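Box 3.1 A note on notation
Throughout this textbook, protein chains are presented in two layers. The first layer is the amino acid sequence; the second is a token string describing backbone geometry. Keep the layers aligned when reading.
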Amino acid sequence: FRARIGRGDGDPETWGGLGLAARAAGDPAGDGLLARPELAMALHGELDGQADPLALGRALANGVRAEGRPV
């Protein structure tokens, strides 16, 4: 999934798949990616594809936990 996103082929299903894979691996990025895949996609695009998709997911997951609601 990360390779597809890195090539610019990251549709919502790909981001969701990355979220599921991350969650299955115990990575907190999964929670953020599954809660807000559209936001992760938008942020990744705004950052010209230079951000690590899992780092974005972790940041989103931290926002969800910090506020008690999705970011």
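Residues 2-67 form one domain. The two ends are 23 Å apart (CA to CA).
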